[in-house]
Amino acid sequence: MPPSTRGSAMSEPGAPLALRAGAAALTIFAALALFAPWLAPRDPTRTLDPAVTALAPPLSSFRTLRLASGRELATSHLARDAGSWRLEGPGGIRHVEPDRVDARQPTGEFRFWLGADGLGRDVAARWLCGARISLAVAAAAVALALAVGIPAGLLAGLAPGAAGRFCLAGIELAQAFPRLFLLVVLVAVLPAGAVTTVAILGLSGWMPVARLVRAETRRLRAGEFVAAARCAGVGPLRLALRHLLPNMTAPIAVEASLAFGGAVTAEAALSFLGLGVPAPTPSWGNLIAEGRDVVASAWWIAFFPGLALVLVGVACTLVGEGLRSRWNARAGGRAS
Prior knowledge:
By secondary structure, the protein is mainly α.
């Protein structure tokens, strides 16, 4: 059996700078998504006095007054008069009777680090929660595509004669079907939600993985180690899992990294069109959709999720190309 390509290129000291930069960027985004509830503990769907905070720019700070009912009022200046609380802001002066105020924690302060949307919701909290949704959906979709594409590619690569050609024709037929049309059809017949989005993206994105695995299987099955394994009585399933699959982890990793960037973008596109994760659950796509009509006056609503999509896409490309370079260099070294 030839030296396996199993193992991460990141573990080698000569990993390209682009690979390290892309991996570092993805790690940062993953950490932000993972620790979102602690970084922005405020409920991303909760509003804060929209009449005052709607479309507040980044770094805006407000004093808050908590009512006994649980609702919060916001103002730029809060004071206590003899008989009431006085809230002063751009909309004028409001007075609140003391018996309406929560006596345990009447006042507080809240800062919109990335601004507020038109309903007075925290864009930072929605961005972080959207990161969790978008990245998790993309990761699950890629995992599903790999789970379908790898067995299909192995089957097409190991099947003899007409059976192999039939499997390849099935893969090519599925890939030739317009993906956008398939997405729209599946969305129309399935209930909207994160699980549906995962299924749609995964079941419409396994064909490139299958073609790659088939090509690698046909290349590797001509090797002497495969002939030796067959002479030793190794069956097709064990041959595929024990001898072939470990030697194609590098190209699969390259394909998976590029597919992840594509899945993040595809999920955002579906959510932007209202066909993906439904509101009010935030994802980067529907955040951009919420901000498109007010981009001139409230640019921050669409800018930050849009910037995140660009950075994740670039990071995935850097990781994929870096892994490809490492794989080609190692393959060239073995050949020489």
